Amino acid sequence: MAEFDIRRILADITVVTGHFGAGKTNFSANLSSALSDLSHVYLIDYDNVNPYFRALDAKKALNGKDVTVIASEFANTNVDIPSVPPEIIGALNSVSSGDRVVIDVGGDMLGAVSLGYIHDKIAANAHGTVYVFNAYRPLTSTPEEALGVMREIESAGGFKTSYLVNNSNIGAATEKEDIEKTADFADKLSALSGVPLLCTCYMTESAPEISGNVLKIKNYTKRLF
């Protein structure tokens, strides 16, 4: 077990995907915060599916970091109009100057479909795709189910998954043991998919006793409980 340095993600553009409620937005915000120690980061709220958990929520918490949050003008409103802010293209172009981009994509294949608007722009640069999973969420409660969701996202978005991130938790009630129990799940998903496990996230006081890399994260998003 070792604490993972998230800054080891070297891609200029990191696309963060996963099932609804897996923790994509919180991971995206933590990744952006860490990468801002190395360069300017654009955190793109590209979630056109879930109006509640938005990367825009992290904007205040990231104050003081070298992070620019880009979101639709309709984010955190009751207006359900998918839109692609023009600032996104500028952010993607900026990687040629050394900036990094983290894209928080909406849940499942519905969110990944919208990547078609900027697919070629992403593909033209050094990029990677992270699949965040939570073993305690419905429809991804087995490695086989989680793999199925991942394949649907890949097909819809047009990007193969580069890394897995185990963000298994039960909200504020999560204990160290709850995370430890998911180690076998993560290993099996990695074996089934052929995709390496990047790290296991935790917000408990002490690191879980599991093999591989663990990443201590902060909560940057709303809490349901």
Can you put this structure into words, describing what you see?
This protein has 225 residues and is an alpha/beta fold. It has one domain (2-216): Rossmann fold (3-Layer(aba) Sandwich), CATH 3.40.50. 27% of the residues lie in helices and 20% in strands. It has seven helices and nine strands; from the N terminus they run E-E-H-E-E-H-E-H-H-E-H-E-H-H-E-E. Strands 1-9-8-7-6-2-5-3-4 form a nine-stranded parallel beta sheet, sandwiched between helices. Helix 5 links the parallel strand 6 (127-133) and strand 7. Helix 5 (143-157) crosses helix 7 (183-193). The protein starts with a strand and ends in a 9-residue tail after the last strand. The model is unreliable at 74-81 (pLDDT under 50).
Give a short overview.
The chain has 7 helices and 9 strands; from the N terminus they run ββαββαβααβαβααββ. It is an alpha/beta fold.
Strand and helix map with partners:
Elements: E1 2-3, E2 13-18, H1 24-35, E3 41-46, E4 67-71, H2 87-93, E5 100-105, H3 108-113, H4 119-123, E6 127-133, H5 143-157, E7 163-166, H6 176-180, H7 183-193, E8 197-202, E9 213-216
Parallel strand pairs: 1-9, 2-5, 2-6, 3-4, 3-5, 6-7, 7-8, 8-9
